[in-house]
Amino acid sequence: MKKTIFAMFVILIFLLSGCSHSSQVEQKAVQSPSPAPADAQVVIQEPVQTVQPAPTQPSAKVELPLEADVEITGFAFSPEAVTIKKGGSVTWIQLDSEIHEITANNNEFLSPGLSKGQKWSFKFDQEGIFEYHCRLHPSMNGKVIVG
Description:
It is built from two helices and eight strands, in the order ααββββββββ. By secondary structure, the protein is α/β, with parallel strands linked by helices.
């Protein structure tokens, strides 16, 4: 019985669509939902999310460089921190117009005054973290990490 009423409702809308009031009828038909058949089942399917595990890679030991360069420019050490292998060396390249001196915070090393264009190197034979600064401009700081 309900199926027959639904079919008649659809036919009625179809027939009325030809008259002058068709836009109003169609608008009403669109706004009012049609009744579902009694034996109809509504199935809501939710999206499936797939999570893939991160790939595992064997941990590879990172090979540290034996040498690193640090530029002195704009009253700063660039990069501010470098990491090298035990037995390696760091070379400071002075690019500022002012003289700078590289001094270890623990006084383990001290460069001469470097003018623009000069370089100075220091070899690190022990592992550890070596913080340094410019003796003439103490706000300039850097760090050498020896592994």
